[in-house]
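target protein:
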Amino acid sequence: MTEYMFNQSPSFSVKGEKFNVIILASGLGSRLGPETSQIPKPLVSLDKEGTKSINYLMEKFQYLAERMIITTAYCADLLEYYLRGKYEILNPIFSRENVSELKSPGRSLVFGLDHALSNLPTIVIFCDYIIEDYIPVDNDALCVSQAPQPPYIVDPYPKSIPVIEEGIIIDLIPNANLQEKRYGGFPGIGIFHNTLLLKSIAYSKAQEKNLDVAYDFDIVKEYVKNVKTTPIYISKMYEFGTIEMLKQVREKDNSNDANN
């Protein structure tokens, strides 16, 4: 039986638009235990071939990126050196934070937006995903997780849930029961065509909360209340936020190749 390979599904703009692509990769990766003792989460090998999430994401969005912005902090030198060497043609831009000042992904996004062009739309994504779904990008949208079929692995305990009425996301609310398995959560992948508004919201919240900003409930929640935003349902995703999930990714069922 052939080894299961991650399926590349690059995203394109039907309208030919170019984007700011912001990959949030600042975190300590503490939930991955010994895997991140010497390297940042984006450089953790996910399979025998050494596939890394940062490679996958850079290549998935490379045809869209006018500006490829990566937020860094933990092991920043290592990650930046690696990406400058491997993706010189994409001219990656790094938004570096001090590890001792890390607070939240929202804070990292605030600094990442400093490098984004306001006249371009913006894609925001976290570094610990392999997303085999095709992601359309020509409208404002948030990805919404669905129950995955094997071998895909999606966190069944989402922190934030989009409220959807008549095909439009009108709000983002906390998951009332983080112990109950459910899907339909917001995994953090967003397409924002009004970058000027996104910046305005992010900077205003950052000032109000002394940079301790929640990406979902402070920034995204406010954005969807002002801009018509649609859901993109995804289920072909590997998430490795914890050591248990990373183990599942590495042991993905080779017999499910037909699903991809």
